[in-house]
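So, could you explain this one?
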Amino acid sequence: MEEIIYNEDKHERIDCFMNKYCSDYSRTYFQKLIKDCNLLVNDKTVSANYKLKKFDKIKYNLQNKPSFSMKPEKIALNIIYEDEDIIVINKQADIVVHQSFGHETGTLLNALMYHLKNNTPFMVHRLDKDTTGAIIFAKNQKAKVSLSKQFQKRTVRKTYITAVCGTIREERGRIEAPLGRSQKNRKIIEVGPLAKKQAITEFKVLARTGGITLLSVRIITGRTHQIRSHMKYIGHPVLGDAAYGGSQSLNGITFNRQMLHSYKIQFSHPSTGKTMNLIAEIPDDMKKLFSSVSKLLD
């Protein structure tokens, strides 16, 4: 069993804390873990509403993680490009890429399985639930290996468009700050003294208006929540990104998601070696912020 020590002064429910500590698992999963005696506090069984005290010793076993059965689901897809090796989607907001606890159905993989007539594609990278834009899937093992190697070698070039809070005065910038998972909230990635993963983000200002700056962003490394975390670090969180301090309402407009879009992706085709340079159209909620956004990207 794995073991952690609770070091917070506040008294927090055990299921809530574990959900934050292990963000890939839902509260419901931990409630079942507790019920099945696979989670102990101070070597004793507790209820899901047990309030943790400082220095409580938590032991847990995730070995009984249930498997998911993939089923095809008819969900609309915005296909940018497709051939016998790959398919590239312009992902919409409010859909997760793959199954996880709390998201067993309704994922992009479920939709692709339906589109590909029960064949399951290979995932080679991810986008957050509310991040929109270009995402690649491989249709066969050869394509998966080729694309995975390109991502590992950082030869895939990804450009994002994002609207951030505040006015950035510089025309260009480069952020070099290591990232790591927050010790207080396991769902958050942050720059901190314990962060060890090198992360480099470059940005260029496209436009400024009404306390909002529109950026073109290139990530040199590919870390979880890299843009969201780095933007918060420099004091300009992504607009609508509540988890990282971004305003959810500005200039009379309410934002239901982070204004972050995977706009362009460049890679070598796994079979032909041809350079693929694919663009995902900007979603309407971002277009409304800057009426001339399309011209800015030309």
Notes: The first helix runs from residue 14 to 21. The first strand starts at residue 2 and ends at 5. The mean pLDDT is 89. Helices lie at 14-21, 27-35, 108-115, 141-152, 226-233, 284-287, 293-296.
